[in-house]
């Protein structure tokens, strides 16, 4: 499995660096809220949903509202429903690795695994697994280190989250260049911009995904019907 490890590390090393920085900022944030390093470490390991972890950290210092947490978490992570649908075929024959792949399917791991063209001499299931594992442990390690060293670090981390935004732009550009047709990607980009302009920024992603699924499903049915007629 050494080839798979090297290949996966090479592909996901930029994501890992981003996760280490963002995880550290999360750990420092939790330290500033008054929690010791075990809280961000364990929350990162068990929740593994960056934006939700930041929100829950803030909710923990307020009166606890379980229903609010449940609804908020469901809305923020609802995009994973569509990630799961997309990866059904790729993860179909991964055997014992499948539960780990499902749990660890964050935005970045999804972006890499969904578009990666694994060489034929490598076991694709283990490539997906190592990419997922590297990303997971880099986030958890960053969160733990940030929480542990939070009292010694006095940095202004505002804007650090743009690291992952920049990475997503790079991934999108690469996907656009390698796609057989760029039409669907451009349609998705246009609808995302429209939904961002007319919807709340916390809800636009869900609205965009639902709209695109409906649109592409309708297009598929129309195309299939035309082919059947012909």
From TrEMBL:
Domain of life: Bacteria
Membrane topology: Multi-pass membrane protein
GO BP term (any one): L-valine transmembrane transport
Keywords, alphabetical: Cell membrane, Membrane, Transmembrane, Transmembrane helix, Transport
Annotated TM spans: 12-29, 41-61, 127-149, 155-172, 184-199, 205-222
Any one GO cellular component localisation term in the record: plasma membrane
Pfam family, one: AzlC
Subcellular location: Cell membrane
Family listed: Belongs to the AzlC family.
Protein name: Branched-chain amino acid transporter AzlC
